[in-house]
Design a protein that fits this description.
single chain; 12 helices; disordered N terminus; about 375 residues; binds heme C; alpha+beta
């Protein structure tokens, strides 16, 4: 009798363990098939870019793109190091950002007194500009002034009013409050945000391999064991056009859903939100992979600046001339005006006030002179 009970318990135990394994396996599969940037890593460790490029030489050039350099940890901030010293004046206040020995210092003086803070992080690789973060009263702050490449110098950071602050302390900048630090570091670094938690000690600067592919610990182990059937890493190439653009690249480049949550959809500044703009283009169904971000951009390579490069992308759907025959795949109207350089007229570059830079409008459309830019 006792023997039978323990046999039953034994069988039950084996079954439970098996179920446990199946559930754990299903969760694992789910984890790597449903990975999105900034998701919880479930304790799987990041291994760093250098480990990845040992086997993936073809993708190694990603590390030279602006995305991979979207943040630098002070004092290794190239712009300040190259300039030595940057200054800006606003009413009684003089701002200085300067490299001094092994530190980058941010100071404000009003003639009577001054405040100096070491800069911790430099945001943006500076193609448009760079904003700096420091700590004040134990809270992260954004500097009130930023570097702008077009000016080759400092001006007000986007969103900071040019009015003259009442005190030196008010003139410092803006406290990055609530869950904003998670957002900033989530979009500009790898590994610093895991789920909702900010882990600055684990930060790897810039958008590196594992920001898009997920933490690599298990992949490394699987590949070293030649377990090729289960790569245990996320390949976004399998996502559909809409999901890729909106929920994948859109995590950081602002999807339609995210833009709708912003006050006034962020007004004219939403030109920077390519997924949102593309979603609004009449006729361009984002379910079609021919208008997904990957159709025109390889995230492992430098951005193509030659407009003619994009023509073939448009002509994957549009006829070149009205005389051409429509096919199942290629049936969108031909342009009555031109057969090349489509993006120059239909994806215009628009200068944003205060940003001192132009952005490419991904809201594909017929533009007319003096017509306001749609928002
Ligand atoms: C020891 C060599 C090795 C290292 C290190 C390595 N990989 Fe791989 N990786 C491979 C091999 C081999 C494959 C092909 C597997 C297959 O075809 O099933 C692969 C496949 C992939 C894929 C495609 C997976 C799929 O489902 O199609 C991605 C994405 C990837 N690796 C990213 C990375 C990243 C990111 C890192 C760093 C965290 C990394 N790899 C490190 C060997 C490696
Ligand atoms: C983890 C956040 C993140 C994800 C995910 C992400 N990006 Fe980016 N991307 C950035 C940041 C931040 C920059 C700005 C870098 C800078 O200039 O400092 C950027 C810049 C770019 C640029 C401009 C490069 C240049 O030369 O100015 C392109 C193109 C781009 N991303 C394409 C993509 C595509 C395509 C995807 C999806 C496959 C994607 N990104 C996913 C954060 C991200
Ligand atoms: C939702 C993701 C996201 C968040 C949050 C975010 N950024 Fe960015 N940031 C981007 C992307 C994508 C770009 C490149 C395209 C653009 O300019 O909009 C960028 C560009 C920049 C640039 C210009 C870089 C260049 O190309 O020269 C600066 C500076 C910058 N961010 C600073 C910050 C700071 C500081 C914070 C936090 C206070 C922050 N960002 C929060 C995604 C983000
Ligand atoms: C901004 C996001 C992003 C970053 C950063 C990124 N990748 Fe990718 N990676 C992708 C996307 C999207 C695909 C799918 C490409 C496709 O199917 O055309 C991909 C595909 C791959 C593949 C599979 C290639 C294949 O033929 O299927 C490998 C391997 C890979 N990436 C390695 C890397 C390595 C190594 C790094 C860092 C040096 C890196 N990636 C950085 C987005 C990224
Ligand atoms: C039909 C082609 C096409 C598609 C699809 C596309 N882009 Fe672009 N993108 C362009 C062109 C053209 C440029 C401008 C290149 C240049 O001249 O510098 C550009 C530039 C950019 C830049 C650089 C900043 C700027 O405003 O100039 C970023 C970032 C970017 N695209 C992100 C994305 C993201 C994210 C997606 C997916 C939602 C996407 N793009 C889809 C054609 C495309
Ligand atoms: C996935 C297929 C696809 C791609 C890729 C594509 N288009 Fe279109 N486009 C369409 C469809 C479908 C329409 C709707 C009407 C039609 O048949 O022309 C359209 C409409 C347009 C319109 C008219 C918009 C309006 O408001 O009347 C313009 C202009 C346009 N596309 C330009 C472009 C340019 C430029 C590119 C490349 C940068 C491009 N398209 C890429 C499918 C596409
Ligand atoms: C020099 C500027 C310019 C260039 C370059 C250009 N277009 Fe156009 N396109 C226009 C203008 C202007 C119109 C509106 C014409 C009208 O309404 O009479 C237009 C109209 C269109 C339409 C709407 C046609 C219709 O019947 O409603 C499409 C689609 C289109 N263009 C696609 C393209 C594609 C694809 C390319 C590249 C092969 C291209 N365009 C290159 C200026 C341009």
């Amino acid at each position: 009798m006792r023997g039978r009970v323990s046999l039953k318990i034994g069988v039950l135990g084996v079954l439970l363990v098996l179920c446990g394994l199946i559930v754990a396996r299903a969760q694992q599969d789910n984890f790597f098939s449903e990975w999105r940037p900034n998701a919880n890593t479930r304790g799987i460790r990041y291994v760093g870019n250098n480990a990845c490029i040992e086997c993936h030489k073809e993708q190694a050039q990603q590390l030279h793109t602006p995305m991979a350099q979207a943040l630098e940890v002070a004092p290794d901030c190239r712009i300040v190091t190259a300039k030595g010293k940057l200054t800006f004046r606003n009413g009684p206040y003089t701002y200085t950002i300067a490299r001094e020995g092994n530190a980058v210092l941010y100071s404000i003086a009003d003639g009577r007194s001054s405040i100096t803070k070491p800069i911790l992080y430099c945001f943006g690789q500076g193609h448009v500009g760079q904003t700096f973060l420091f700590r004040h009263n134990d809270v992260l702050y954004e500097t009130r002034v930023s570097y702008f490449e077009k000016l080759r110098g400092l001006d007000f950071t986007i969103g900071h009013r040019p009015a003259i602050p009442a005190s030196l302390e008010d003139a410092l900048g803006r406290a990055i409050a609530g869950d904003e630090p998670q957002q900033c570091f989530g979009c500009h670094t790898t590994g610093a945000v895991q789920g909702l938690e900010l882990k600055l000690d684990q930060l790897s600067p810039g958008v590196g391999c594992e920001a898009c592919h997920g933490p690599g610990e298990k992949h490394l182990a699987a590949m070293k064991a030649k377990n090729l059937d289960e790569p245990q890493i996320f390949n976004p190439g399998g996502l559909g056009g809409h999901e890729l653009s909106q929920s994948f690249c859109g995590t950081c480049h602002t999807s339609f859903e995210q833009a709708m949550l912003l006050p006034g959809q962020s007004g004219i500044n939403n030109i920077r939100f390519q997924p949102y703009r593309m979603f609004n283009s009449r006729g361009h169904n984002t379910n079609d992979s021919r208008v997904s971000c990957l159709a025109c951009h390889n995230p492992h390579e430098q951005l193509q600046k030659d407009t003619a490069y994009y023509d073939q992308k448009c002509l994957a759907c549009h006829l070149t001339t009205a005389k051409e025959k429509k096919t199942e795949r290629r049936r969108a109207d031909a342009c009555p005006v031109s057969t090349s350089k489509c993006a120059t007229c239909h994806m215009p570059k628009i200068e944003l006030q205060g940003m001192h830079a132009s952005f490419t409008d991904h809201w594909i459309r017929i533009t007319k002179p003096n017509e306001p830019v749609p928002r």
